[in-house]
Amino acid sequence: MQKIKILIADDQTLMRDGLKTILELEENFEIIGTAKDGTEVLGLCEKESPDLVLMDIRMPKMDGVKCTELLKRLYPEIVVLILTTFNDVDYIVEALNYGAAGYILKDIEGDDLVKAINDAYKGSLMLPTSVAKKLVEKLSENKLIKPKEKKVLLDFSEREAEIAKMLSMGFNNRQIASSLFISEGTVKNYICNIYSKLGTSDRTAAAIEIKKIIES
C-alpha cells in the first residue's frame, strides 16, 4: 500500500502532537515531520518531499497563507490542506487562490479529518458546509457593480455574477463547482454565458475585465 506522506504545521505543540497521534493510526498515512511555522514547512518540504501539508493558517514568522503561496510556487505537486479555527472568508479566498486544496476547521472530528485528507489527496476540493455557505454569502453581499457599458453586466444573473467574481479571483471550475454545490458542467455553461456577455473567449481576459468592473 502506497502511503500518503504528511507534514503537519501548527504553532501549538499540543495541536501538532494531537494531530500526529490521530493520523499515525491510519495505515495509509506516514507523518514525515511537524513544523511550527511557515519557514520550517518550506525547509522540511525541500528535505522530505511530503505528498500533503496539513497547514495551520495562523503561525508566527510566516503564516499559512503566505507559506501556501510560496509552497505551491516551488512544489506545485504538494497538496495543501488549510486547518484553522478561523472561519474567515478572506483567508479562504486567499488560500484557495494560491492553490490550497481546501479548508477545514480545527473542531473537525477525527474520522472526518482522515476522510478530508484522503479526498484532498485524490483531488477533491475540501470546504466545510459552513465555510462554503459563508463564502457564497460574502460573494452575494458584494454584487458586481454595473459597468460603464450598461449592456455588459445588466444581463448577468445573480449566479453568473457570483461565478464571475470567483473567476476573477482565480478559482478554477472545480473550486467554483464545489463552493456553490453545482456540477462542473453547470459552471462551464455559466462561464460560456459570461464570456459571451463580456465579448471574449479567454479566461484571463474575462478575469481582468471583471476586476475592472468591480473596481470601477
Automatic annotation (TrEMBL):
Which of UniProt's keywords are assigned here?
Answer: DNA-binding, Phosphoprotein, Transcription, Transcription regulation
Q: Locate the coiled-coil region(s) and give their ranges.
A: none
Top-level taxon of the source organism: Bacteria
Record's PROSITE patterns?
HTH_LUXR_1, HTH_LUXR_2, RESPONSE_REGULATORY
Question: What's the short name of a Pfam family annotated to this entry?
Answer: GerE
Which residue range or ranges hold the HTH luxR-type domain?
149-214
Point out residues bearing the modification 4-aspartylphosphate: 56
Annotated GO molecular function terms are: DNA binding
Response regulatory domain sequence ranges = 5-121
GO BP terms: phosphorelay signal transduction system; regulation of DNA-templated transcription
> Which PANTHER family does the entry link to?
TRANSCRIPTIONAL REGULATORY PROTEIN LNRK, TWO-COMPONENT RESPONSE REGULATOR
The protein's name: Response regulator transcription factor
